[in-house]
Protein 1
Amino acid sequence: MKALACLLPRGLFGRLLALLLVLLAVSHVLALTLMFELDPRGPPPPGPALAAGAGPWAPPGGAPPAPAPGAWSEVGVADAGRPREVGMDRPGPAPGAGAPPAMPRELRAGLLIDIGVRAAAVVLGAWIGARWLARPIGRLAGAARELGDDLDRAPLDETDGPAEAREAARVFNAMQARLREQRDERRRFVAAVSHDLRTPLTRLRLRSEALADTAERERFRRDIAEMDAMIAATLDHLRGDTSPEPFAPLDVAALVAALADDEADCGRAVTLVAPAPDAHGAVGVVGAVGAVGAVGAVGAGTALSAEGVAPRHVVRGQPLALRRCVANLVENALRYGGCARLTVRDEGGAVVVEVADDGPGIAPERIEAMFEPFVRGEASRNRATGGVGLGLAIARDIARRHGGTLALRNGASGGLVARLALPAHG
């Protein structure tokens, strides 16, 4: 195959032209073969018989005798009062012979066969040629889809396909290499910033322990904890899609159940709610998740309730990243609504997780702005009630990295509903 590929033209135009030439030659040979094979009298006889006028295409009665070179022939003219004229033999039917004979039926059938075979060959060749020429474009499109999930995917083959496809593969591989370098540089930057920011905080924490005044020491501790939470949230946002965690099939229902177990000791009001059965009688799950890994702290004091069965709801994702995404939504619901009710279900080829609360909701014109970094639902500067303002921004970034969506809406009976939709796997 490689030796044959070396004989093909390098450009797309040359390959298309070669395909058309081969197609015309094959259709011509095939049409002539079918014409002779389908003729009941068989192929025409050899040359001498044809010269004598034999064969299916000879006129009835055989061919007329050829006149001698330079001979004159009489042509009668039926015109009263005029003598008969003698003239040179002229081509065409003799006067009074009528219209020329109709095309033989066998010839008409042969022409129809020829046209049909050529038309079928053109259609088949166009279909094969389109798939052949579009194959490199399909590979490029598939690589572009995979690039969003995995920057470390194998590069495209730069030696296969026409010259245009090979050039596109080289450009795509160069772009992938640059994106990978930028990601690695971003990881190094985040690691350096994390170290540089937390080192002074550690010194402040150690010095605060030496304060004799207990009240002053407690104020220092709160301020340091607030600064540490801000740094953690900012670094999580900067880290974004640079996490090296691999993508793998993940059961969202199992993830939710595990998070509910982790939150049981915290006493937070996170509830699993089983939705109504679907058209097939299956009951979707619900799950509950606590604020594990979320930014800031939420006051405890209410009990955790968990009900329902957990069927499988599989997506392809990063387990820790999705845990952080849902945890941030629950953190937001607990902070502003006092409770979080989670529902997990299949919906039109997607796994949907909804987090509802009993809070005051958000003005419709401000809903989209809540996903901007450092925008908080509570207008005060109090971190205990207003948070850092990065939880929803981080959650949306994670959802988009998984090919999903995250949206907010006000509930029909009050409160806010966060809807996370992820494409189902398999």
Protein 2
Amino acid sequence: MTTITIKAPDIYDPEARKVVESTTDLMISISGDTYNHKDMIKVKGFNWDADGKEWYYIVSQEWFKSNAYSFLREIAKTMGVGPRGIIWLGEQSKAAMKNMDK
């Protein structure tokens, strides 16, 4: 099964002295059976993470608000990913989902 995961990258906050979610960027990752769609994924700007065995794309929150709906819809439709295959992790990604232009 192919999944698309949206989450804010973890960054170190020196003031809080702990790892927190980024408030400026979001990471879109695609994992699972992606081989047949690898060319389309590359064209969209994703990079391959060999260690994590997933494709990833880091975007700003502003880009996400304006472009994510059509971008994710096209990828999901092409790859046959249903609503259950899109995973929103963390507070930043859930807030971004509510604010994206539809």
Protein 3
Amino acid sequence: MQVFSLHTLLLAILTFFAYSISLAVYRLSFSPLAAFPGPKLAALTLWDEFYYDVIKRGRYTWKIAELHQQYVSLLSLLESYYDELYVASSTRRTIKYEWAMKGFGPTIATFSTQGHELHRTRAAALAPFFSKASVYQLEPSVQSIVDQLVARLRTVQGTDSNINMIDVFTSLTGDVISQYAFARPFGFMQSPNFAPHWHQSMMSISENFNVFKQFEWLEPMMRNIPPSLAEWASPKMSSFFGVQDVCQHQYPLGERVCGRMVDAPGEGARN
């Protein structure tokens, strides 16, 4: 039995190496990317993208820009394809890149819908909310929230207080969207320091997208972790789970929910 197990293990290892070698030969010699000059590692494996986006924390876009400069002569030859790539749906049905959408998991959100027709159907359901008439009706609500921001900024004018404008505009955006979607803002603008935990939680989640692309089984596993456990591990994620409760379960924006989203543990004065 032991000999059989060892033989099976060796066979599995040899099969894996044979598959890896044949896949490498195909990608470097016969795949569509083989005809393009560039770093062979990028054509060989998506781990190259993982390195820049996860290990280097989102530097893959800059790496692409660097490669564009390096192979600018080739890109100039491909300029004629610009009008073919970026076209309206009446010219060609566009399907979103499956690899890029993996980071969002199996979601029904319009943004991560791959198929053209399904995306068009889902987008059409949202279109009335972004019509000119709807935006005009929203203007007083937006102005009210902006007035709150101006009033908050005036209170620190001429003082030594420091304000992180990234937190400010993240809170402003969150309150505008929630006012429109739920007829009441989340209340981020009322937070003493503009709810810095909200921006931090969004940045943390966005970094996970690149990990989920490479390890797609992680996304459903993380999604099934009880919120109470996740909040215990990362208290500043409480605002995210508060928003998630509202969106998924249609909870009313009562004081308990809004308070949970604004008064995250560990938020103190920032001077």
